[in-house]
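Note to self: user wants both folds in one dump. Writing first protein now.
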Amino acid sequence: MNSNLRLNLLLLAGVVLIIGVNVAAFSYSYWASSFDLFWNDFLNAHFYRPAAKAGDRTMADCLKVNDFYSARLTTYFRADSDDSAGGRIDDMSKYAEYCDRVPGTGRVIFSVTLIEEDVRGMPVALSFYKLDQKGARALLTSLPAKPHPTGFVTLDSPVSYRGKYLLELAFNEGKSAEDKIEMPISVGE
């Protein structure tokens, strides 16, 4: 291949590259939103670790949804120690804030924020279960169904064992899967 042909091919490639960059830049508003969505989904799936502590997360990290309802979970945790044995549980300055992963055993306070305002007038129940290796549930503690006009449902419980737990939020009677939001909780894993 002679040098003039090689130079012409390089010049043609440069012109095509410049035209391509200009077309992409001027049409950015047409394809940017779908590309951003694809790119963020790719990063979330392959590179980002889920948030564990409250300061590491965004609103969406602790948002739990089903087809009809949505709620935001905040877990306050106080590790087992001689200082935390007995005593007041309402001193929140001694609690660390987490989402659905708790670092160890101790006392937890689950605070669920009901997102939709129309849900706050209907009865809502909250139950906390321990799961075994087969997925069978053992009820640890629960709150009966009642309206929560402030939009906050709280439940406190000790967690004595590392493993899998389940927090279940039931709307109305909670008879069907559409009326429940299940929030898996991992302790010490």
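First done. Writing the second protein, which came from a different request thread.
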Amino acid sequence: MSVIKILILSLVSIVTLFILSKLMGNKEMSQLSMFDYIIGITIGSIAAELSTALEDNFIEPLIAMIVYALASIIISILSNKSIKIRRFFTGTSLVLLDNGKLYRKNFAKAKLDINEFLMQCRTNGYFHLSDIQTAILEANGKISFLPKSEKRPATPSDFNLTPPSDRVSVDIIVDGKLLKKNLYYTGNDELWLQKQLVSQKVDTIEEIFLATCDSENHLSIYKKENLENSEDFFQ
């Protein structure tokens, strides 16, 4: 009986955690503030406790999860309306390097030593501080780098060029299934698709694993292949 109860409570905790996460909003781990991180791990711990609550007190951790989630939502709303509250909970950005000067006090505030800063510079492709105009520690703990103008990659505007607008490739067929809305979004129809399939010697849609349409209206087709790469380069 206890096993069945654990299964039921686990499902309840998963569903509750999913709903609360949707209400609090989706963020990547690198975008979480300190407060968001604390709230997240606390709710996760309570959810784990809820899934193994064999006694009749499973309501208490459920209420606790909801309270933490509501606190996060309320603080998020207040932070959007007040700069002071936002700075208090999410923190502020700190300038670590600007125009050849390292700001030691900001390093101390961030509790960041120079060796760790240099490591962050190298992992972002800057092996010489002289290549960096400004380095800013963001509120989420990541460091943003502004390279000096002579060190940044050239762009078309540097050569007075205006390339045509581009767009991301649109998935037309996924795992043998036609996505009609995506097909119509590209300005094409089933007749155009059929002609493309014939020109690329594809008999049926079912044999396609993925087909995408780019900004030049070119259809790229990847068939279903039962092949295995014997050379794994990513072990």
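Dump finished. Worth passing along: The mean pLDDT is 80.
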